[in-house]
Amino acid sequence: MSGATDWLGPMRAALDEARAALGTGDVPIGAVVLDPDGTVIGTGRNVRERDGDPTGHAEVVALRAAATARGEWRLAGCTLVVTLEPCTMCAGAAVLSRVERVVFGAWDEKAGAVGSLWDVVRDRRLNHRPEVVAGILAEESAALLDSFFTSQRG
């Protein structure tokens, strides 16, 4: 997978996960992890509200599921696809899990750590730097978040 159109299917799967988070009152962010062949080996959605877990971000949930599926924490050759630019915790988890690339939809100007506010994944002081593909179905990802926060404000 190399072109932007190659990431549409996986991003749609991540958006499905994001929509499922709405059922528990969680911020609608979804993620999937693909193995080197492009097969989904982990899925996740925000579960902070549902589980009362501050680390219950979609990316962490998906990375944990992928590590379980692989039987190891190293996710070399894998791709993390997520609807919103990862925060510092999730960008760090992507680096530490050794994913090959991070693909995301909408930019997060307030907390993004893959180029917006910080750029954790490209920090040369770290031992691993995944490739970044940004802006896949960004408008759809942003619209889902905007709708959620508009409804929260009443």
In short:
With 154 residues, this protein is α/β, with parallel strands linked by helices. It contains 5 helices and 5 strands. It has helices at 8-21, 48-51, 58-70, 88-97, 138-153, and strands at residues 30-34, 40-45, 79-84, 101-106, 131-134.
Percent of residues in beta strands? 15-25%
Main sheet strand line-up: 2-1-3-4-5
Shape: globular
What is the helix tally? 5
Number of strands: 5
Largest sheet: 5 strands, mixed
Stretches with pLDDT under 50, minimum 5 residues: none
Q: Write the H/E string, N to C.
A: HEEHHEHEEH
Q: What is the residue-mean pLDDT, rounded to a whole number?
A: 96
Helix content: 25-40%
Rounded to an integer in angstroms, the radius of gyration calculated over CA atoms is 14 Å
Structural class by sheet pairing and helices: alpha/beta
Q: Could you state the oligomeric state of the chains shown?
A: single chain
In whole angstroms, the N-to-C terminal distance is 41 Å
Can you offer a commentary on this structure?
This protein has 154 residues and is of the alpha/beta class. It has a five-stranded mixed β-sheet with strand order 2-1-3-4-5. The protein has helices at 8-21, 48-51, 58-70, 88-97, 138-153; strands at 30-34, 40-45, 79-84, 101-106, 131-134. The mean pLDDT is 96. The radius of gyration is 14 Å and the shape is globular.
